[in-house]
Specification:
The protein is an alpha/beta fold and 377 residues long. The chain has two domains: 4-150 and 362-376; 156-360, 3-Layer(aba) Sandwich (Rossmann fold), CATH 3.40.50. It is 42% helix and 18% strand. The protein contains 15 helices and 14 strands. Strands 3-4-2-1-5-6-8-7 form an eight-stranded mixed sheet, covered by helices on one side. A six-stranded mixed sheet has the order 11-12-10-9-13-14. Strand 11 (239-242) and strand 12 (245-250) form a beta hairpin. Helix 1 (16-32) crosses helix 15 (365-376) and helix 12 packs antiparallel against helix 13 (334-341). The longest helix is centred in the N-terminal third of the chain and has 17 residues, at 16-32. The mean pLDDT is 95. Keywords: Elongation factor, Glycosyltransferase, Protein biosynthesis, Transferase.
């Protein structure tokens, strides 16, 4: 019998939470032979990532994963052997009671948000005894050996390499999105939250002697983009040129196609957690728009990652990279920071490749979760 896993996901920010849990569920099934149920409270948001999904079905199977709608009124279900509450979501009371009644209690894991902060290493894997006698363990994704690793399917980097090395493959993929970049243009993807610094950055790109082709999938940044372009109408396929900058609006693509988009670009601006990790696997320079928290608590998380990520860069290149990320996330002059990074472009590009290789040398998140489960037996 295959070990059974239940993953619970509350969709908080449209796609980040479900994006991570959907990738994880598929990998546990495909690579580790687990039987996985993914409980999701918002199937409509899930539909954007999995177009084959039936948003009205209480139960269905997609890519080997059993998808269950998690309604406000708990329908009841026998607990799995491994139970994951993603991102501190609260499991149904009835389910927790059923867990406590099992002859062998399930392994209960709280899969937390990704962070590079120092305290994460000390908390990863620790138990949290519950009043009903169950134990819940903290499981933190991360960038060091003392954490739970990053999501990475076994085929991910080989597929990235194949797209880049197979003649015409990159062009075929971009052509399928209606993208035909001009010769010598720097290709940049932009997926971000609202940002007042966007116009300042675009002004510099438009004035640059090197042409830039900016690819913007549908999302929250389109309002700021439209304000800079002077239009409220930015349908999919919209193409605008200003100086050396070409701006093109793309459709909201599947997870696999978003990976291919990141692999196809020379620079990726990403947001949240799922896209942030995928951009690191692309191995090219990147910019992270971190999810905003009250009282700017997210800045500590940003700075903690930058401490790790800048290791190996020269002081000048490291400082330029840090100032770019701070400008984007702290409402500072973005155009000035972008211009200051350009003299260090080759070094930052090589550093992105080295970071990708270093992270790929560590076990991935799904593998570490399975190891944790087997060690608990």
């Amino acid at each position: 019998m295959k070990p059974t896993w239940d993953i619970f996901c509350t969709v908080v920010d449209n796609y980040g939470d479900i994006g991570v849990t959907w990738r994880l569920a598929r990998q546990l099934v495909a690579e580790h032979g687990m039987a996985v149920r993914l409980w999701v409270d918002d199937l409509q948001a899930f539909l954007r990532l999995c177009p084959q999904l039936d948003p009205g079905a209480a139960q269905q199977w997609q890519q080997g994963v059993e998808i269950r709608h998690w309604p406000a009124t708990w329908p009841g279900a026998e607990p799995a052997q491994v139970v994951i509450g993603a991102f501190a979501c609260q499991l149904p009371d009835g389910y927790v009671q059923a867990m406590a009644q099992q002859p062998t209690p399930p392994l209960w894991l709280n899969l937390d948000y990704l962070s590079a902060e120092d305290w994460v290493q000390g908390c990863h894997g620790l138990p949290s005894p519950q009043a009903n006698g169950l134990r819940k363990y903290f499981f933190f994704p991360g960038f060091t050996e003392q954490t739970g690793g990053l999501l990475r399917e076994a085929s991910l980097l080989p597929r990235c390499q194949a797209l880049r090395q197979t003649p015409g493959e990159r062009e075929r993929f971009l052509g399928g999105l209606g993208v035909q970049p001009q010769q010598g243009a720097r290709l940049i993807s932009l997926f971000a939250y609202e940002n007042p610094q966007l116009g300042n950055w675009l002004d510099v790109l438009a004035a640059d002697a090197q042409p830039t082709h900016l690819l913007v999938p549908q999302g929250r940044i389109l309002g700021d983009l439209g304000a800079w372009l002077g239009t409220a109408q930015l349908p999919v396929g919209a193409l605008h040129r200003r100086g050396g900058l070409t701006v093109q609006v793309l459709p909201f693509v599947s997870q696999d196609d978003y990976d291919r988009l990141l692999w196809s670009c020379d620079f990726n601006a990403v947001r949240g957690e799922d896209s942030f990790v995928r951009a690191q696997w692309a191995g090219v320079p990147m910019l992270w728009h971190i999810y905003i928290q009250q009282e700017n608590a997210h800045w500590d998380k940003l700075e903690a990652f930058l401490v790790l990520y800048r290791e190996g860069l020269s002081p000048a290149a490291g400082q330029a990279l840090v100032e770019l990320w701070r400008a984007w996330n702290m409402d500072r002059p973005m155009g000035q920071a972008w211009a200051a990074l350009q003299p260090h472009w080759d070094e930052v590009r090589e550093h992105a490749r080295q970071w990708q290789a270093a992270q790929a040398a560590r076990p991935d998140l799904a593998t570490r979760l399975v190891q944790f489960y087997r060690n608990s037996l």
